[in-house]
Amino acid sequence: MSKTGGLASESRIDNLWWKAWGATMKVAYFSMEIGLNENIPTYSGGLGILAGDHIKSCADLNIPLVAVTLLYKRGYFIQRINVRGEQEEFYPYFDPRPFMEQLPFKVTIKIKGRDVNISVWKYHQQGIRGRVPVYFLDTDLPINHPEDRGITHYLYGGDSHTRLCQEAVLGIGGYLALKRLEPGITTYHMNEGHACFLTLALLRDAGGMESRVREQCIFTTHTPVPAGHDRFDYPLAQAVLGEYLPANIRALAGQDELNTTILALNLSRASNGVSELHGKVSRQMFPGYDIGHVTNGVHHLSWTGPEFQTLFDHHIPEWREQPQALSKARDLSDEAILSAKAGAKRRLISYVNAISGAGFSEQFLTICFARRAAVYKRATLIFADLEYLLNLSHDRVQYIFAGKAHPKDAEGKKLIREVSELGIRYEDRLRFVFVPNYNIWLGALMTQGTDIWLNTPRRPREACGTSGMKVCFNGGVNMSVLDGWWREGCRDRVNGWAVGDDEDQSDEAAAADLYRDLDDLVTTFYAAPKQWVSIMKNSIADLTPVFNTQRMVLEYLHKYYQ
Ligand SMILES: *Cc1c(COP(=O)(O)O)cnc(C)c1O
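# pyridoxal-5'-phosphate complex -> structure
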């Protein structure tokens, strides 16, 4: 269990105290993707949604922060599954005008020696006590070269050349935009290495003084998977970034390749990973750097569904301003918890039945698995012994899966095909539906409605994970490998189920543990309803007070922002 001491007192909010902070600090938060709500499709998954939740909790607490990201007019993509179970991608046009305001000026940066004009759109994220401006950068302007207009069209869609141009727009363009819009920034927070070229813009303004840049920057790394750290060939970097590259770039960003993580680490005064284990793994990956950790959270007001909002408002009204008050959830009556859960589950099951015709029932134990279809997340682990699963599940358990594969990830796409084929092949023996187009809206519906949230990553690849936290705010229960946040929060069989123990396991060992836990869980659900409700309550009371972004941004404030 993670240390929660001191949180309650730190979080007691005093308006004047916050105003005093405002006078001495102002944070600029840079993120390649930000996911705020279902209307603005400028995110792909966990990283963007975390950024959105970070912003929302800062707005709630009136922490002085402004955010910068890119405006993708063709977003990530809409996923459909065809009759062969294959993922197909669609990129509809997104019109930002109903949601944000285009500011009447442009900033210009040089990419490949050519002027690229950048327009800035302003969005306001309203919170309880304040609001945070979010600036979206857009190169899709008639005055730009046709090739440059496309820089901000697609999120993670292009080749490494496009990616480099995007990161230049974010870091350098974003810096110039803020210089005009938000004087007095005291800390630049790079959310992932994508934002690292910000340091090159700062370096120019500091006359090459690295220590001056380092004083102003902090950096959060988000993945222990090597492919998640962008690297660029120096000839490409030279061609695209030209004059922005300092003469000693290889000393700052790596000898052989420009490594965005190394550049960010070298020019930040502090760096962190996103869970205790991820902090440790990051220190091993990047020896010589002082990397701490702040465990991620979720924005409590965004992810708690209407049923539990009503319940908490009634019995624990202070939860809106102080989510740690949800530690009192153990005092709620069994009936109230079960009735809120039933309402949320009904919404999920109705949707699944409406789009699939599968005839799912509110009475059955429901297990959800939804996340990016990456191989290390092992979506098919639960099918390792199909006969066993079919017997265990028969007329007792129903499964809802979702998740997108990156359009260029053949392995991930194969996983989706395998999973949806299983559903079709065993349609009369296994209650299984793959719901297409996992996004912020479907993520909310699933995390609110499910009984069990399953997660079986290969340790320690899941840096933190946040979807399971959303489940806790809605009386759901996690069954997961002890990776990322769950390693810090899990009390096995008390507030959820731990698959395996605090060690790295082979797939075979993990599958065996998973089946043992599933057996136990199904028995508890049907044969010991009292115990089940007490696990639901512990899931809320133990976990939501800690794994929320209010606790997280206060930790950033105290450790890194001041
Ligand atoms: C919360 C969320 C995520 C992040 O969840 P993980 O636990 O990191 O997989 C990703 N995508 C969507 C749509 C989400 O709502």
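# post-check
Residues 45-46, 49, 371, 438-440, 443, 465-467, 470 surround pyridoxal-5'-phosphate (CB under 6 Å).
The radius of gyration is 23 Å.
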